Amino acid sequence: MRNKLLRRLSSGLLITAVVAASFTACGSKEDAGATTETASAESNEDSTSDASSSAGFRTLDEIKESGTINIGVFSDKSPFGYVDENGEYAGYDVYFAERIGKDLGVEINYVSTEAANRIEYLQTGKVDIILANFTVTEERAEEVDFALPYMNVALGVVSPSDAVIESLDDIGADDQVIVISGTTAETYLTKNYPDIKLQKYDAYAEAKTAFENGNGVAWANDNTEVIAFSLENEGYTVGIPSLGDNDTIAPAVTKGNETLLTWLNDEITSLGDEQFFHADYEATLLDTYGADYEDTLVVEGGKVQ
Asked: What is the mean pLDDT of residues 273-286?
């Protein structure tokens, strides 16, 4: 309706300009041209706004105008994203999210997410950004747009200390390995070791409980997570600290949301100048991993060393 009204107004203004031209010898054509360009520019702006809405995402300007940004994080995956004893979101990803909200000048609406629905939440517009230990892969990059990375990661396998799995060849034909649905661990094992039986869970907490209950001989997940689990829970050992290729973790936005993606990339680059992610690590991960892992895990300024 608005575009039709603009076209009608534009036509009316053009007619007025033509009539005025019969009385005025100079300047009339320039005025008419300016009117046409203005109407065209407004029409293009409307088209851009309509396109972003139909694509299922909010542009950077729309987020700023609303005063709120929706960020998807884990609520049960300490020390990366979890709800603390005061009912507040905390962790490495949340520390970064808080800075995003501050620098954008907006409030943050945290949306609890699970590994399996991270892409869905972006595609349906439920969140503007995912900050939930999202490992960058080629397959995922076809469905979402990743910003620059802020952390290194690989896969790892943790098992009971009295029956340590040091190689995937140690896993018997009837044994089961616990994984979380939608993670790179599930994808890697399904593709490269199709004979290994997988026991899949949607949530981190469910997988952790199942593993502690002895439902599987091992748990495959990001090495940061299995290392943290073994350090926090006596009786478990990371027998395979690195499995497959080394990857990175990065924020993700809805496919095609160029304005928000560009802002995020600029933000990550700028934060590198102040060693922000090292400060984040020291505030949220140091107690879990110690100083020895800091330079290995942290990616500063979006540049992988």
From this structure: 97
Beta bridge partners of 107: 68
Instruction: Report the half-sphere exposure of 84 (CA within 13 A, side-chain side).
Output: 10
Peptide bond before 79: cis, by omega within 30 degrees of 0? yes
Q: 65-74, 92-101, 240-249 — which is least confidently predicted?
A: 240-249
Q: Would 21 be classed as within a structural domain?
A: no
The residue-averaged pLDDT of 249-273 equals 98
Q: How many domains does the chain have?
A: 2
Q: Which helix (H) or strand (E) holds 54?
A: helix 28-54
Vertex 131: Cα angle to 126 and 149 (nearest 5): 135
115 and 161 in a single domain? The answer is no
Q: Which residue, of 206, 224, 247, is where some domain finishes?
A: 247
- Write out the residue range of the structural domain in which residue 201 sits: 154-247
What is the C-alpha to C-alpha distance for residues 274 and 16, in angstroms, rounded to an integer? 58
Distance between CA atoms of residues 267 and 248, nearest Å: 17
Write out the DSSP string of 241-276.
EEEEEEEEE--EEETT-HHHHHHHHHHHHHHHTTTH
pLDDT at 245: 84
pLDDT higher than 60, residue 2: no
- Residues forming a β-bridge with 247: 153
Distance CA 233, CA 98 (A): 29
Q: Single out the residue of 153, 189, 191 nearest to residue 171, CA to CA.
A: 189
- Secondary structure element (H or E) that encloses residue 224, with its range: helix 223-232
Phi-psi region of 45 (alpha: psi -120 to 50; beta: other; left: phi over 0): alpha
* pTM of the model as a whole: 0.74
CA of residue 116 relative to chain centroid, distance: 13
Hey, what's the torsion of the CAs at 6, 10, 16, 22, to 10 degrees?
A: 180
